[in-house]
TrEMBL record:
Family: Belongs to the class-V pyridoxal-phosphate-dependent aminotransferase family. SerC subfamily.
HAMAP family for this protein: SerC_aminotrans_5
GO cellular component, as recorded: cytoplasm
Cofactor needs: pyridoxal 5'-phosphate
InterPro entries in UniProt: Aminotrans_V_dom (IPR000192), Pser_aminoTfrase (IPR022278), PyrdxlP-dep_Trfase (IPR015424), PyrdxlP-dep_Trfase_major (IPR015421), PyrdxlP-dep_Trfase_small (IPR015422)
Catalytic reaction list: O-phospho-L-serine + 2-oxoglutarate = 3-phosphooxypyruvate + L-glutamate
Keyword set, alphabetical order: Amino-acid biosynthesis, Aminotransferase, Pyridoxal phosphate, Serine biosynthesis, Transferase
The protein's name in its UniProt record: phosphoserine transaminase
One of the GO BP terms on file: L-serine biosynthetic process
PANTHER family, per database record: PHOSPHOSERINE AMINOTRANSFERASE (PTHR43247:SF1)
Residues covered by the Aminotransferase class V domain: 7-398
UniProt-listed Enzyme Commission number(s): 2.6.1.52
Length: 409
């Protein structure tokens, strides 16, 4: 068994900074001078509470989260939020519109990839008989082959409902490598200008694979933003929520008016009222994620990561583009909609992807195999995940390998 670490380009759980892993090793034995390891200490101890407060504050200041929004910590991952967000926002809608019929209670889903498709499917399951789930737009319609999630559709196609219980989108589609652009002038940006301005819009964003890799555009206009920790900031087991106060509602009062009952563990109000400590939280993932965001602050915060992530993505797409010109690589995603975090491309020719993956592995680079569902042929597709912990030097090493691969092809 090798004790050497490799470069892990995997999509998640993914690489974490080595310095943080080493610091966490110490905390595992003795957390903050308490003489008790972090996995052993009570979540109600003053030392853990102080750590949690600092963690929250580090997210709040780096993402510039306004006082209108709470930051909450929970478990259950993105998948848990596919359900929780539906139930909490249906409860909110019921309190605002006590007599609304299922036809008048509409959930708007923007579908730009496998994860938003899954979220919409869960909404359909939970809302059956209570509400109507609408696909606002499905990006496959605008794809090159009519089948792939390879683009952000034109703004004109985003026809939101009049007064929906939620509007849902996934900022970065991890499997398909499609992401909304953060340049407001780009046709691939999220069409914030089409949202009604005179009400508190229940806009929900899944930021699972792009949380804290750069600032969140129009954060204050969102009702709920959520992310599993396991891509950019920590191990799996922690889910982070940013919830606008008006979405923290008494779900039992809503149930008395006919809304679906909400399990206590999924209720945003229960989480908020208990300071995210209603039941035992994921102490160890919180600790490791807290160390990561502390390190991020020391490194210069999101401006530093935004610039680094921009350069990493630009360099990588440049070599993929070069390979495309030579007929060796083929990008899966249309220009302008490519993800900064998950670059997806094919290596053309019989056996070529296998050769690419094996060659990379020989040089200590792993986790490059794409998701089966994206592939248009027998093989897999390459997916390079460029989360925060992947350094520029590591990307340069991959690019050097890709350059040699092109030379030999
Ligand atoms: N949403 C996105 C964008 C994801 O990438 C993932 C997982 O990779 C999920 C949701 C599901 O998250 P989890 O596995 O934490 O339930």
């Amino acid at each position: 068994m090798s004790t050497e670490r490799v470069i892990n380009f995997g999509a998640g759980p993914s690489a974490l900074p080595l310095s943080v892993l080493e610091e966490a090793q110490k905390g595992l034995v003795n957390f903050d001078g308490t003489g008790i390891g972090i996995a052993e200490i009570s979540h109600r101890s003053k030392e853990f509470q102080a750590f949690l407060d600092e963690f929250e504050q580090n997210i709040r200041t780096q993402l510039d989260v306004p006082p209108t929004h709470r930051i909450l910590f929970t478990q259950g991952g993105g998948t848990g939020q596919f359900s929780a967000v539906v139930l909490n926002l249906l409860a909110r809608h019921r309190l605002l519109h006590p007599t609304a019929t299922p036809e008048e209670t509409v959930l708007d889903y923007v579908v730009t990839g496998s994860w938003s498709k899954k979220a919409a499917e869960e909404a359909r399951r939970l809302a059956a008989g209570h509400a109507t789930v609408r696909t606002v737009v499905d990006s496959r319609v605008y794809s090159k082959d009519g089948k792939a999630y390879d683009n952000i559709p034109p703004h004109a196609e985003f026809a939101f409902s009049e007064d929906p219980a939620l509007i849902y989108y996934c900022e970065n589609e991890t499997v398909d490598g499609v992401e909304f652009s953060h340049d407001p002038q780009s046709p691939a940006s999220f069409p914030f200008h089409l949202l009604k301005r005179d009400t508190l819009v229940p806009l929900v964003a899944d930021y699972s694979s792009s949380f804290m890799c750069r600032p969140i555009p129009r954060l204050a206009d969102h009702a709920v933003i959520y992310a599993g920790a396991q891509k950019n900031i920590g191990p799996a087991g922690l889910t982070i929520l940013i919830v606008r106060q008006d979405c923290i509602v008494d779900v039992d009062a809503a149930a008395r008016l006919g809304a679906t009952p909400v399990p206590l563990s999924l209720s945003y109000k229960i989480l908020a009222d208990s300071g995210s400590l209603y039941n035992t939280p994921a102490v160890l993932p919180i600790y490791m994620s807290g160390l990561v965001v502390r390190r991020m602050k020391e490194n210069g915060g999101l401006p530093y990561y935004e610039e680094m992530n921009r350069r990493k993505a630009q360099k990588l797409y440049a070599i993929v583009h070069e390979g495309e010109q030579k007929g060796v690589f083929r990008r899966k995603v249309q220009q302008g909609s490519e993800s900064w975090m998950n670059a997806v491309f094919e290596v053309l020719g019989e056996g070529a992807e296998k050769k690419f993956l094996e060659g990379a592995e020989k040089e200590g680079m792993k986790g490059l195999k794409g998701h089966r569902s994206v592939s248009s042929h027998a093989l897999l597709c390459i997916r390079v995940s460029l989360y925060n912990a992947i350094t520029e030097e590591e990307v340069d090493k991959l690019i050097a390998y890709m350059t040699r691969f092109l030379g030999e092809s």
